[in-house]
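Changelog note: in this version the structure field was regenerated for every chain. One regenerated record is shown below for reference.
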Amino acid sequence: MNSYTFLASGLDGLARGGLYAAMALGLSLVFGVMRFVNVAHAELLVLSAFLVFALAAGLGLSPLIAMLIVAPAMFVLGYAMQRVIINPLMNKGVEPALLTAFGISIILQNLMLMTWGGNTRSLSTGLADLGFDFGPYRLPALTLLGLVVGVTLTVGAHLFFKKSALGRAFRAASQDPATARVMGINVDAVYGLTAGIAAATAAIGGALIGMTLSFTPVAGFTWLLKGFVIVILGGMGSIIGTLVGGLILGLSEGLGGAVFGTGYRDMIGYLIFLVILMVRPSGLFGVAGSEK
């Protein structure tokens, strides 16, 4: 393996890591604010990819334009699911809400199978043949787009939580919901908005996955597993940690696949994850609050 191949694999891995961060951001947001693991997140991501596919195929829209339509629709869906279904259950404890989210994921998966079948799909864009040359290596524009979007979403979410008044209300609801209610903060609305934002980011991540890779109705578990790895690696509740975790996983997969073969790419990524957890059990940016 020459130096160009090694560099190319690293660049591709970093770019894919940005896509991973965009995909996992919603998981991090929901856990950071609610201390709740939304296991239906991956199905929302895959559903978004199929909705973009349906708009592109049915109306002839560019997947990028369709993504901008699907994202706000998923915000509404995520908000409604949280306010109507999950919030009342969370008042009884995390376990009923977690089991219900698992049930929602099964329902969504079966609805997608009934509607679109089990075939593998992908989203075609005009960017497929575009790229940037580094010596003999070409970095696809879509892959780079995933990196840019991942960095933009995570940094934007971090600044929102740290700098804005609404973000401070989110953090107060996360750290002490009872006190936040006494202060006049509508915690149920905060949870709903968090779920809506998470679903919207899932829509963007799902569309980008469809443009750069492929998807099926049963692909959710694979992405949920990667999302868990990224969120735990970066530190539960840390938004910037989600970005760093995604970049580390992507880079590990890229370089590991170049050195040991693509068949070992996922295994290398998970091994790096385990090694880091042995050194830092709380993750690289593990926090006690929602985002510090």
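Spot check on this record: The longest strand covers residues 131-134. The beta strands are 131-134, 137-140.
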